[in-house]
Amino acid sequence: MRSSVMEQQSKFWRDGAVILAISSKPPHGMLFVERGHHLRRHPGEIGLPGGAADEVDAGDPVKTALRELHEELNVGAGQVRIAGTLPAIKQRKSAFVVKPVIGVLDAEATYSIDGDEIVGVFSVPLPSIVEGGVYEDRLLSETVGRPMYALDFEGRHIWGFTARILKSFVDAWNSSSSPVRAAIESLFKD
C-alpha cells in the first residue's frame, strides 16, 4: 500500500532547475532576480534564475537552467561555463524537484531583465554568501518545525527555498577539499 501511495505522489512532482550564476570578475557576485508582483507563483520574491523543465530541455537540468537564464536575463548559454551541480531539492509548496546548477559567467557577460516575469536583478558578492552570510533563522525554524535559512544583503532578505539552496551551496563550498569550490575557482582563472 505504501509504495503505491509514493508512486502516485511522485507523479505529481515536476522537474525544474535554477542556476547559481556567479560572475568571473571579482568580487564574483552571484545573480539574484526579483519576481514580478503580478505573478501567480512566488510574486515579488527574490530567487535564483530558473524554472520548470520543458520538453526542449530533454530531461537535462543544465539545459533547463541555461534556457531559463536566457529567458529571464538574456544571458546566452555561450556566456556561461558550468562548474557543476548540487543535489536536487524538493520544493513541497510547488511540488517541484529542483536541481541547482552552478555556472560561472564570462567577464563580458551582460544581462537585462525581461520586465514581465523578472522586474529586478542584483548580485551578492560570493564572500558575503560563503563566509557566514547564510544563517539559520531560528524563530522561523521553530515556527515551521525544520531548519529555515536566510541571507541578508543591502536591505534584501533572501529566505525560504532560495536560502535552502544557498545553504547547500555554502556547505559544498566549505567542505574539505571541495570539488565545487575547486571547479568554480578554476573557472575564475580561465
| Major sheet summary line | 5 strands, mixed
What's the Cα radius of gyration?
17 Å
Q: Can you write the helix and strand succession as a string?
A: HEEEEHEEEEHEHEEHH
Sheet-strand content, in percent, reads 25-35%
Query: Roughly how much helix do the residues carry, as a percent range?
Result: 25-40%
Assembly context of the chains: single chain
Task: Figure out the total of helices.
Answer: 6
End-to-end distance: 54 Å
What's the β-strand tally? 11
Backbone shape: globular
Question: Can you offer a commentary on this structure?
Answer:
The strands form three sheets. Strands 1, 4, 5, 6 and 7 form a five-stranded mixed β-sheet that branches. Strands 3-2-8 form a three-stranded antiparallel β-sheet. A three-stranded antiparallel β-sheet has the order 9-10-11. It is globular. Helix content is 33%, strand content 32%. It is of the alpha+beta class and 190 residues long. It has six helices and eleven strands. β6 and β7 (96-105) form a beta hairpin. The protein has helices at residues 2-12, 61-73, 126-130, 138-144, 160-174, 179-189; strands spanning 14-23, 29-35, 46-47, 50-52, 80-85, 89-91, 96-105, 118-125, 134-136, 149-153, 156-159.
